[in-house]
Amino acid sequence: MTILCVRFQLPPMYEAALPQLLGLLEEFTPVVEALPPDGALADLRGAERYFGRDTVELASVIRVRALALYGVDCVIGAGPGPMLARMALRDARPGLTRAVPGDEVREFLAGKPVAALPGVGTATARTLCEYGLDTLGRVAAAPLSTLQRLVGARAGRELHEKAQGVDRGRVVPNGISRSLAAERPFTRDELDPGRHRRALLSAAEELGSRLRAVDKVCRTLTLTVRYADRSATTRSRTLKEPTAHSAALTRAAYGMYEALGLQRARVRSVTLRAEGLAPAEQASHQLTFDPVDEKVRRIEEVADRARAKFGPRAVMPGSLAA
């Protein structure tokens, strides 16, 4: 076991703490891959030799440090590769690392439903189940040619290998998160579209502020609306141009929300995620010659300086839209 998959139990709206927690992992190994909004993969091969401890012992130290330094608990899965570490994480619970040693991989996988394997979607799982291949043990025992006839040559080969515990994945360091999210939960299931829109405005302004703070722009905005029955709707929109402009993010968020056509929906929370992050200096900006837009951008700059000097509450959410 050399790979850890860690999920930090961050409270809603605290994804901004993830970079600090990634820094904690980087004290043990430089090979850390962020899994926004609240997770990471870490390759501890070098750390085991350096610290003279095995992966499970190092996982315990990481958990204690996360609790002591940041007040954040975590659940951890460990395995020989990233795929197995991710799957082990699903069986983990706080305080106890779920570890899958190399000689127990087939036993660990055998009884799991085929849909538990990363990369197996609903349609593929349904096809396999129709032919009695409902567990990974049965998939591993099936002839490769059978799997290839059912799901295709390449997909069948990958499925056969993964079901047998062959994990060819690797941890790819990505020091900067590739996405940022802002969630706005309601204190009760909310019916009022006006409150939905105010929550979106607040989330868009938070995303814009955070993007500008790290000199990033985003190419795509994703909206997730969660309902009282625990179901959710997700929509994504590619922006006309990469931006960190709060007004542009707000317009895109409103557009996606209105396209849902919600009628008296009982909404539990709304989440906006900025994806496809890129350095701001590499992004082009289309001049609009709109004095109102330029005024808003200047106000944003002043508000960002106020936040940097006096803290995030120096500018109240929604004030830039006034």
Secondary-structure map:
Elements: E1 3-8, H1 18-26, E2 32-35, E3 39-43, H2 45-51, H3 55-70, E4 74-79, H4 82-90, E5 98-99, H5 105-110, H6 122-130, H7 136-141, H8 144-151, H9 153-163, E6 179-190, H10 193-213, E7 216-227, E8 232-243, H11 246-260, E9 267-275, E10 278-279, H12 291-310
Parallel strand pairs: 4-5
Antiparallel strand pairs: 1-3, 1-4, 2-3, 6-9, 7-8, 7-9, 7-10
Order of helices and strands: EHEEHHEHEHHHHHEHEEHEEH
> How would you characterize the largest beta sheet?
5 strands, mixed
Shape verdict: globular
Fraction of residues in H or I helices: 40-55%
- Got a strand count? 10
Oligomerization state of this entry?
single chain
Structural class, judged by helices and strands? alpha+beta
As laid out across the biggest beta sheet, the strand order is 2-3-1-4-5
Which spans of ≥5 residues are poorly predicted at pLDDT below 50? none
Q: What Rg, in angstroms, do the CA atoms define? A: 23 Å
Beta-strand content estimate: 15-25%
Note the gap between the termini. Answer: 55 Å
Number of separate helices: 12
Mean pLDDT, nearest integer? 84
Task: Spell out the key features of this protein.
322 residues, alpha+beta, five-stranded mixed sheet, five-stranded antiparallel sheet, 12 helices, 10 strands
